[in-house]
Amino acid sequence: MRCRGRSLLPRVAVVTAAFLLVFDGGAWGQMLNFGAGDSDQPIEIEADDGIEWQQDNEVVVARGNARAIRGEVEVRADILRAYYRKSEAGGNEISRLDAEGSVEISSQTERAWGDAGVYDVEKAVLVLSGRKVRLTSGEDEITADQQLEYFNVKQMAVARGNAYARRGENSLRGDVLVAHFRRDQEGKNRIHRVEAFDNIHIVTPQDEAWADRGVYDVETSIATLTGEVTIVRGENTLAGCTAEVNLETGISRLKSCKEGGRRVRGLLLPEDRKQIDSPDKAKDPSER
């Protein structure tokens, strides 16, 4: 380990301190699948207000616009804490990285934000929390009001609390969203499937849809909905047990219930009647 600033530096105007960590292990750079990089790559930590190296506690604390950089991966926060330990090979390895305040994690293809973050190296799990956590990958964006978890081994992210997945003008909402990643032909990590649970709401330029559960295939742009499905386009309403909604073409297909023999139901108003307040008009699904 080499040090370029062991103690907390005094703040004079804007002070920049740097600390270079050279470790034998390499899992830290894999978070959010930003790429593992070379296991011998150093981790460089910088901060405006100084860096504190607590050797007895085996932790490095960086404060004030702190940055941790390894290869293409960069973590920014008000405060960064890097916990390390002795490895079996005789060197050092990071066991956990904690980030507090205005957390931002980025690579060339992905970016995530939160109020706080913890990366567990052994489990390869990153947890971001805050009032509004956000993850972007290519054209896709996922937000939530509580927490975002990223499981590197499973290539999966879980957003909890009023979670949204957006692409362009289309959005998919659920209490919990599970996004699955895989590499495209260019070797970039992309979302290819999103699973949505509880209080599902889909919005497109043409339609709105409600359901209990949904699965969105990003490549085909088709969302498969199940459980008390309702689709609304203007004044027209359709309801069934399952549906396929093509978010690109705007074509929706509903199916009747296999159990109970309940058929697809719909209310279609002619153009000259849409302005009439009909007593038989279906109730707004949002008021169900």
Question: Your description of this structure?
Answer:
It is a single chain. The protein is 0% helix and 58% strand. The radius of gyration is 24 Å and the shape is elongated. The N terminus is likely disordered. Strand 12 and strand 13 form a beta hairpin. It has a 6-stranded antiparallel β-barrel with strand order 7-8-11-12-10-9. By secondary structure, the protein is mostly beta strands. The protein has 2 domains: 129 residues, no CATH class; 140 residues, lipopolysaccharide transport protein A fold. It is built from no helices and 19 strands.
Secondary structure elements and their pairing?
Blueprint: E1 17-21, E2 43-47, E3 51-54, E4 59-70, E5 73-86, E6 92-106, E7 110-120, E8 125-129, E9 133-137, E10 140-144, E11 147-151, E12 156-167, E13 170-183, E14 189-203, E15 208-217, E16 222-233, E17 236-246, E18 252-255, E19 265-267
Antiparallel strand pairs: 1-2, 2-4, 3-4, 4-5, 5-6, 6-7, 7-8, 7-9, 8-11, 9-10, 10-12, 11-12, 12-13, 13-14, 14-15, 15-16, 16-17, 17-18, 17-19
Order of helices and strands: EEEEEEEEEEEEEEEEEEE
Which class best fits the helix and strand makeup? mainly beta
The level of helicity is: under 10%
The biggest beta sheet reads: 6 strands, antiparallel, barrel
CATH architecture identity of the largest domain? Sandwich
Q: What is the CATH class of the largest domain?
A: Mainly Beta
What fraction of residues sit in β-strands? over 45%
- The average pLDDT score comes to 77
Cα Rg: 24 Å
pLDDT < 50 stretches: 1-16, 21-38, 272-283
Strand order of the largest sheet: 7-8-11-12-10-9
Shape: elongated
Distance between the first and last residues' Cα: 61 Å
